[in-house]
Amino acid sequence: MLSVFCSPSRYTQGKNASAALGQEMKGLGLQGPVLIVAGRSAIRLLADTWKQSLGEAGLAYAIHPFGGECSLPEIERAKMLGRQQQARVVVGAGGGKVLDAARAVAEDLGVPIVNCPTVASSDAPCSALSVIYTEAGTFQEYRIYRRNPDLVLVDTQVIAQGPPRLLAAGMGDALATWFEANTCMTSGARNMRGGGSTRSALALARLCYDTLLEDGAAALRAVQQQVVTPALERLVEANTLLSGLGFESSGLAAAHAIHNGLTVAPPTHDFYHGEKVAFGLLAQLVLEGQPRALLDRVFAFATEVGLPTTLADIGLANLSQDMLLEIAKRATAQGETIHNEPFTVRPDMVADAIRAADAEGRARKARSAVPHGSRVS
Prior knowledge:
Strands 1-8-5-4-2-3 form a six-stranded parallel beta sheet, sandwiched between helices. Strands 6-7 form a two-stranded antiparallel sheet. Helix 6 runs parallel beside helix 8, helix 9 (254-262) crosses helix 10 (273-287) and helix 12 packs across helix 13. The protein is 53% helix and 11% strand. Residues 372-377 have low confidence and may be disordered. The chain folds into two domains: 11-160, Rossmann fold (3-Layer(aba) Sandwich), CATH 3.40.50; 164-366, Dehydroquinate synthase-like - alpha domain (Dehydroquinate synthase-like, alpha domain, Up-down Bundle), CATH 1.20.1090.10. The chain is built from 13 helices and eight strands. It is globular, with a radius of gyration of 20 Å. By secondary structure, it is α/β, with parallel strands linked by helices.
């Protein structure tokens, strides 16, 4: 098996980076017309900047407002406008699902893709894949593409204006990167490009984890104050670049498969991808029998930045045994990344790990709620 490392052609990050979008695109030889697939917040925040930046670069463009779900009908709607405009490049601007949809549109149209995340809520921007959902929000499939984005441009001034919860969700997605990468290395599993991991990918995945622990809480406070700080810059790089390169070039394991399983439960649809991945990671660590000291560290970080640590935190306080088994069966479906674990995983094992992770989270919440000096009998 050959080792494969992949990345975007260019990654640009910084305060007010959106003003350089036209210049960056032109420098890479990208030409208009441009189709911008954008979320509502992105349009509100960046419409004037696009007009100036793309105008100065001589790039004509049209905007397709994203419909809310990265589904096949939504992708088709955007493609229709792209064909009408004879688009020669697609720009995705918004959160992870917007970027996934834009990537699918660009692939089907056979044109380059530029990703401009307006929140650091997932590791989607740098990758060459999309997560496709049904219109109801249930996971449907991964789509793997021929090449990574030509440009990923991250404006930290815009990200600082976003909801703190979205930044925390990005940390949840990124938190799983090192653990899933390490699992794939241990088992010899193939990465998302069908090759083996490299030492570089593993080192980036580990740097992602270390950066989260070092800068996560401070970066969250920066977004709460809507300011750009060095801690936020480092954390955004971890959520976006380090996590993106780490997962794609090393691989996924149980955490993301359990996320996919959780999407069959409608109450989880109100929660972000990274929030469900974070709980999936806790279940993965239990499933793998990881040491208590590691569980303590991961649970403590999740609690510090407001990530889910119980089923109730993702809308499943009253999870029935039947629904739990449906989640577990979906998480262990044929082709799922849970089979990258270095042992055979059955649905009953996943169900047990989910229940055990939930119990651990509830116990920790109960202990933290006890006033100092009190005893629990």
